């Protein structure tokens, strides 16, 4: 208790001086317990993030941020210098280090790391040999070799999104550029700063920059994801850094006066004097040499000017990029005058990119940038922050009104005629924030407008939504619930209940649907309608789905070993879970581990899975079906399935949505829908199951419609697996048979 009191007192003292947000008692105690054992991995990423100077000491932007966080928290991490960035990520995955000093958030890394908010942004570009300038985006590198530094987020991005590219992992960006210069690869993905260091200083004249790679680094501190408290502590350390200190770090590393560069004007003056003097003696030969040298100097000046421009401008649209916009935002913040931000996100732009190709997507972005620049007054700042997001900074005299915002949305939606004469239409959703009083840091305004856009996408798509403090509170609440759900998955707070599915013709239980439940230690039973959408929003749905799959298969295997008579256990699979390229292997591994036959597993999928022509989805279905796993379409009738897909896919069962079944006896529209869906399923050779059967009148109607199977409270609520026995199954079969006989009697007397 004394140690805890001292730590809390020290951090509270810093709060009093404006140094750091106070740690909670639990955080302070945790930090004290681990302060001598926390290991941070560091790999050289020259020239800006981290490198060893001539004295063998670490320098760089990321190193300075790490030093500042250590000072703010009053702790010194054990620094582990590793040979490459890839080795650092490998050590983090293996839990041999506890945090990494500089990392971008990716789906692959989220499996073993959690991240603070970004403290720096770096753009990535494509470099090729001169003469190959037509290869100006990643789609041109299909079946070609492309080098990136191994273990980086760029390597993961290219691998996942462009599988046809022959990815060549390099130990460092220097090695990647050497491979390109030697003709051993066709392109390189790297930052402009790396290019300057390894291309121009090393004298590789045959390499040129051709365009953006399409993925920019948002650099954060990363900590092992099984210690969420460490991420919160690191975030508080970052948030405590004074704006002046942050600005000094950025000035020192992102906008330095590069002392290593040649003073070109001085060289030109000296060479002019020298050549003039020598020309009096040597004549024409040196004159031609002078022209050649001037040409080289001019080319170097142009290249450096291009790199300088790209550091703060988007290569596709010519607008400011995120670092450039943050500079403008910081200037507006320092005036201490009111200003406003509008963050504009294009709707379904990723689908257009995939459908028409990246070159069409880039042309749309260029058209939209020109349209925004023409529509908005010249004194407003417009930027492309990356992907499909544009930002507008309004000065105090032009705070946005609803009418102007509606005009902005309509302006974006006007049709665009592209170079190939095709007509394209895009829509946009806007988040808006008005800053009337100075915030602690300018970046907080950008964070607020990003929250507003996120909520607008969910509730006001195609319009705009102004930021409200409750939005941030909802996000905080989501984060708290996410951490608790992650703990629930790891610490057995979840359990499964099983609802029987009965065959109306055989009068017996043929299967069970596994339904996940959460018994919170403090809040009690949490409804699935609350925590399953939470898992989908926060990215935990795959982990939750994997747990349900394994637990259900273990239980079904136990029942089979006990001699219970049933055919299968049904498990719901989310779209995100199914989209995992490794999903088929995971399912087969679970079956091998639990000993459950493939034929005893049914995967329930939704119609959403078939929206778009995704060959990977079809391949996964075929692969699992070939192993004997059965499939059913859940909530059939609420989505937009193509009849062609239903005919071609290996689906055995259509599961009618309970929205239609519940009021089947009272709603003629529901009756017609259920009748049509049942006939459709039978015509395609599928079985049809109705869920949500609660009344005998509904059961009688389903009998008359020749529905194959039923599930609902009329037969049994979801039960604990301990309640399932041979006697219980037999009793349910008798009850089903009695209802069937009653339905036949009623039908014969009508």
Topology (elements, then pairings):
Elements: H1 2-16, H2 25-34, E1 39-43, E2 51-52, E3 58-59, H3 61-73, E4 78-82, H4 85-93, E5 99-104, E6 113-115, E7 120-122, E8 124-129, E9 145-149, H5 153-161, E10 166-170, H6 173-181, E11 187-191, H7 192-200, E12 207-212, E13 217-224, H8 228-239, H9 243-253, H10 264-282, H11 284-312, H12 322-334, E14 339-346, H13 349-356, H14 358-375, E15 381-386, E16 389-394, H15 402-413, E17 416-417, E18 423-424, E19 428-435, H16 443-459, E20 464-466, H17 469-490, E21 494-503, E22 508-520, E23 524-526, H18 528-538, H19 541-561, E24 568-572, H20 575-579, H21 583-594, E25 601-606, H22 615-626, E26 630-636, H23 643-648, E27 653-656, H24 658-662, H25 668-683, E28 687-691, H26 696-704, E29 709-711, H27 726-749
Parallel strand pairs: 1-4, 1-5, 9-10, 9-11, 19-20, 22-24, 24-25, 25-26, 26-27, 27-28, 28-29
Antiparallel strand pairs: 2-3, 5-13, 6-13, 7-13, 8-11, 8-12, 14-16, 14-19, 15-16, 17-18, 21-22, 21-29, 22-23
Helix pairs in contact: 1-2, 3-8, 6-7, 7-11, 10-11, 13-14, 17-18, 19-21, 21-22, 26-27
Short description:
This protein is an alpha/beta fold. 47% of the residues lie in helices and 20% in strands.
Protein architecture, described:
It is elongated and about 120 Å long. The protein folds into 5 domains: 2-120 and 219-253, D-Maltodextrin-Binding Protein, domain 2 (3-Layer(aba) Sandwich), CATH 3.40.190.10; 124-215, Periplasmic binding protein-like II (D-Maltodextrin-Binding Protein, domain 2, 3-Layer(aba) Sandwich), CATH 3.40.190.10; 264-312; 322-467, Reverse transcriptase/Diguanylate cyclase domain (Alpha-Beta Plaits, 2-Layer Sandwich); 499-517 and 541-749, EAL domain (TIM Barrel, Alpha-Beta Barrel). α1 (2-16) crosses α2 (25-34), α7 (192-200) runs antiparallel to α11 (284-312) and α19 (541-561) runs parallel beside α21. By secondary structure, the chain is α/β, with parallel strands linked by helices. The protein starts with a helix and ends with a helix.
